[in-house]
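Handout, section B. The chain below has 112 residues.
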Amino acid sequence: MLMPAVDTYLAVRRAAGYKLRDVERYLREFAHFATTRGEDHVVAQTAIRWAARTPSEAQRAERLSIVIRFARFAHAEDPRHEIPPERQFCRRHRRPVPYIFAAEEIQSLLAQ
């Protein structure tokens, strides 16, 4: 049930003009991974486990985002597909608030 959903997803996206070479490879890997665990639908924990198998945080985030897009598509037709949580990997980095010097502070720094 999972592989036919992947095929449908890829066909619809390709009809919209997307090439999806890497996406296809990742989704087929994920579907195989999930199917070997006896799952017919996207299960959030399985998607996270599958994505976590890669060595870099950026790769994990990319793989999970691909499965999330697929899961949203599949969930619209069959609500048994779970949508994994976003931002499971690659936490956002907050930039520090910049300090803006007043004209007097700049003058005193230049005078030193």
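Note. The first helix runs from residue 2 to 15. Compare this with the example in section A.
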